[in-house]
Each structure stands twice: as C-alpha cells, then as structure tokens.
Amino acid sequence: MVVRVLIWNLLDSEATIEQLREGVTELEPPSEWIWNDATERFGVIVFGDELPEALGWAQDLIGADPDVYEEFDVI
Questions:
Q1: Which CATH architecture is the domain 2-73 placed in?
Q2: How many Cα atoms sit within 13 Å of 52 on the Cβ side?
Q3: Nearest to 70 by CA among 35, 44, 42, 50
Q4: Sign of CA dihedral 69, 1, 49, 60
Q5: How many other C-beta atoms lie within 10 A of the C-beta of residue 43?
C-alpha cells in the first residue's frame, strides 16, 4: 500500500482554510483532509494507489501545486 501526504501553504493563496473546509468532499477512509489554522496549511493524507478526484478541486481553488508531496510505502 502507498500513503501520500500533500500539503499546501495558504499564506500566498487567495483560498482560505475555511473555504477549503466547507467545500471538501468526504474521502474513502482511512484517507483524511488535514489543516492547521495557526500556520495556514491545508493538506491531505491519502491511503491507496490512486489520488482522489477531490484533490483537483482543492488544487484549483488554491491555485498551486502542493508545497509538500511525499510518498511512502506501508509495510
């Protein structure tokens, strides 16, 4: 299994965490959206081989590729 962590820094984005929080769709567990209000960062932890379509919506709203994209193999 593969786990991916994608994080966007929203400091330079017109998108807000509140906009993203209101618009995200539910992901197939155990994948989850994540955010940190204090650092204005938004992201997702995705379990599985495919990235969910909802990532495209978030990326379009933010207007940039993720600042962090890490991929891990799970044993």
A1: 2-Layer Sandwich (3.30)
A2: 23
A3: 44
A4: negative
A5: 21
- Reduced to 3 states, what is the DSSP secondary structure of residue 7? strand
**Predicted confidence (pLDDT) per residue in 12-35, tens digit:** 898 999 999 998 889 999 999 999
Tokens of 1: 């299994």
- Label residue 60 by pLDDT band (50, 70, 90): very high
Kindly give, in sequence order, each residue whose CB lies less than 8 Å from that of residue 38, ignoring residues fewer than 6 positions away.
none
Cα 31 to chain center, whole Å? 10
Q: What is the value of pTM for the model shown?
A: 0.90
Which element (helix H / strand E) includes 20? helix 17-23
Assigned token pair, 21: 């929080």
Cβ neighbours for 34, distance < 8 A, ≥ 6 positions apart: 7, 42, 43, 44, 45
